[in-house]
Design brief:
This protein is an all-alpha fold. The protein has a two-stranded parallel ribbon with strand order 1-2. Helix 5 packs across helix 6. The longest helix has about 40 residues.
């Protein structure tokens, strides 16, 4: 476990600079959006702030395998411990980033209507579901989606490391074909709509199930990945 802790420290030191740049850019976009909406007279400008977090975590997860696997193995870390440390790292940054994101939304919501005019509308689960949602639900759904995408990109990077680009092409082709099949896309559409109307949480349970399986697939794939 000391090796895993050392791996996490290495990842954390690499994260600091990237995180500072990321949040600086995102906060700048929010401030500039406020200025444009206020001085330009644009009512209810729509701003998406959770999607960039998902993209950042996804890129970070993919780079863990692509750039750090060889180095970690040469340091004496086993593939299982590398995968374990990486999963903990992905989960950790997902929690921190989404907590900070919810803090920004809370501050913006507090200031709007008092200090600032109601000029920005942030994409949230309240707006998607057309219903008032709690902090726990907003944070939980954002975290679930962020970790799911992060684990997925880690698994895809594991496939790339083990089998090469052909594996990614096959996964992409299978995914496209599956989505074309009426039985699949109709069932998925029903699950999403039932979740949207709040009548069925099968879609969420499906995401949780995939979230559990992806690390297992990654552990198995990395067993014989080149390093």
């Amino acid at each position: 476990m000391n090796q895993v802790a050392a791996q996490l420290r290495i990842h954390a030191s690499e994260l600091v600079k990237g995180a500072l740049i990321f949040w600086t850019i995102l906060l700048t976009i929010i401030v500039v959006s406020y200025l444009i909406a206020f001085f330009g007279g644009v009512p209810d400008m729509f701003v998406v702030t959770n999607a960039p977090i998902i993209v950042f975590v996804a890129i970070t997860a993919f780079r863990l395998v692509k750039e750090d696997l060889d180095y970690s193995i040469h340091l004496g870390l086993t593939r299982n411990r590398f995968a374990l440390g990486s999963m903990v790292y992905i989960l950790g940054i997902s929690v921190l980033f989404n907590l900070f994101h919810q803090s920004i939304l809370f501050i913006a919501d507090t200031l709007q209507g008092s200090v600032l005019k109601d000029t920005l509308t942030f994409l949230s689960w309240s707006s998607i579901l057309n219903n008032e949602t709690s902090f726990i639900l907003d944070f939980g759904l954002d975290l679930l989606l962020t970790v799911l995408v992060g684990f997925l990109l880690f698994f895809l990077a594991s496939l790339l490391s083990r089998f090469g680009q052909l594996a990614l092409y096959i996964v992409g082709l299978v995914s496209i074909v599956a989505m074309i099949v009426p039985a699949v896309n109709q069932k998925l559409f029903e699950m999403v709509m039932n979740f949207y109307h709040g009548t069925d949480l099968l879609f969420i349970w499906g995401m949780i199930g995939v979230l559990i399986l992806l690390p297992l697939f990654s552990f198995f794939t990395l067993q014989k990945a080149s390093a």
